[in-house]
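Protein: Tetratricopeptide repeat protein
Species: Psychromonas aquatilis
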Amino acid sequence: MELDEQSIIEQPVSNTTLIYEGIDYNAYSLIQLACMAESEITGQSIAKFQDAMKLQLIVIKSKLSNQPENNLDKLNALLRCVYDEQGFTGDWKAFFKVKNALLSSVLSRRKGVPISLGFLLIEMLKEVGFDAYGICFPSGFIVKVLLNNESLYIDPFNGQLVGFTELELKVRGQLGNHARLTSDMLQADSNETIIKRYVNVIKAGYIQADNVELALLCSDILLRLDPEDAFEVRDRGFLFQQLDCFQLACNDFTYFIEQCPDDPIVSLLKQQIKSMSDDLVAQVLH
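Structure follows.
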């Protein structure tokens, strides 16, 4: 089932609040939560996505029907099916585009970024019986599979199994040459942590596309989930500033300064507040 990519990205937003403070993250799968977030942001039909996903899962199950035992051979067969035969792949050429973050677009195009591809891969792995989890790894989303009391790690961007040496190289590439892989980095993250990361990725895509209104909606969802996140309040302030909502921006910057007075960006924010306050006075005078 094909989903119209352009309509997914540009259609009006939903009026229904699906992601809210106090939501029971454990009552939903990762892909359900991600689909709910996308539906709230873009208005994309959850039922339409679910139908398309069901078809994809049927294909995967039929391809692996002759491999009932969950072992390394079956895991490799699944990865070949998804990445070689079905053509799912990471999109280097348009890495920061919204179409590579939104699940419905990624399912239709079979191209995406690690977190969106990771959600789809986890769902496929679970459908055929594997225990699969997500990790918000420093360099990008990683999928963890438990197999015979052993943890295996998959880079969902290319479908490759990655060992500790490769994972440490990824860490050093992201955090600096002196950084080292630690056991904490390989722990499965909660649905709450992962969904917040996912909405942040979508927000970044909309910022990159200069779609400030939808970026602001993403920020609203994140603050709904964590109203006291001072850094998200600060980011929302910058979005308000771009929309010439100077009083709202000043309020957000002031809140951040109060919560994080020693942050290096405080002096810049104070300058921004003064500049916007002058603009507000000028607007009133005219």
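Remarks: The first strand starts at residue 89 and ends at 90.
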